[in-house]
Amino acid sequence: MKRSTFAMVAMIAVAAMVGVFAGSSPAEFVDDNTPVPPVGAEGGPLFPLSSGELATWISGRRVFDRDFHSEDGIGFPDFNGDSCRGCHQDPAIGGAGGLDLNVSRFAFDNGGAGPFTNLFGGQLNHRFRRPDTPGREDPPKNADVFEQRQPPSILGLGLIELVSESEILANADPNDANGDGVFGYARFINVNGVDELGRFGWKAGVPAIQDFSNDAMSNELGITVPDASRGFGFETDADGFPDPEVSLSEIQDLSFFMSNLAAPPRGGATSPLVANGEALFSQVGCALCHVPMLNSSVGPIFPYSNFLLHSVAPPNFRGMAEPDAPSGFYRTPPLWGISKTAPYMHDGSSETLMDAIFAHRGEATSANAMFNELSAGEKTELLAFLNDL
To answer: What separation in angstroms does the CA of 284 have from each of 183, 194, 288, 365, 378?
Structure first.
């Protein structure tokens, strides 16, 4: 999915609401008989699986694809979609979402003068509201800072979890000790008194995949989960349906599926343009944040990310802040599969890879300038490399 007009967004919203409440939403994309893509293919398993593991993976894929309805307790009172797949399906189930699936966030920052303050109910301005339940005013009248967020691809998520904390911290340089102008730092999330490395989400606010599953179930779908003791998701709501609204086995199967979704494969182009472009990618400084290779417990992986937070926003940018993740700071997104997940940046504001490069500011200002100094042919080579990822 790419950019769409306001009218199309409105039609999609109406269609989704009719489907959720009339019980006639579009059929799920997969069932237990849907072929499983080959190991390593988009939408396929990350590793070869035993027959039992494959059954769990398929069950988790069904949970990911499941359309939730009002009688399932969806959205009390708000939600962003009726399934995980509804926002993560491009180019395959578990992939990214288009601009028409963006979600808005809001807060109060006193016209940019600060301090940044979350308003009642949190930052999310959900896309849909159940017509049978009351809700807060979205956004509140005193909200004065807004930000769009685009659904990122979750392909390869399991490999990120297999990278050790020490491997990620080895690339951190919060005080720019080497003087290269890049200040990447790790975000730690306090979970029951223990600081855990944040790995997932635009601001690295989630440490583990099962946390990601619980958080998305509750905050994106409005579904209660069986165990929110780690602080992700919620166990009860007031919609009158028995809690939890999804079972522990379903959450575990969902998490297994997401942990075992293959990372996007390289295109495999043999053109010298691609090799030249990769060299230029490092030469101009892109690889300082988009680190090509990291070691994991299963060997080297090639996400083109350091999974650290960096400030890449333009001067005077106003956006969402979280503890230890100020406005304008984002986790470096992996670039694997980047050629198939346009538009780009956290808000989908860049339609092309060229636009995304020029949108980088802050710590990426130098790399941006060096890219701009490349010849037209060299830019073509660098883009050829990105389009092979």
So the answer is: 17, 38, 9, 11, 11
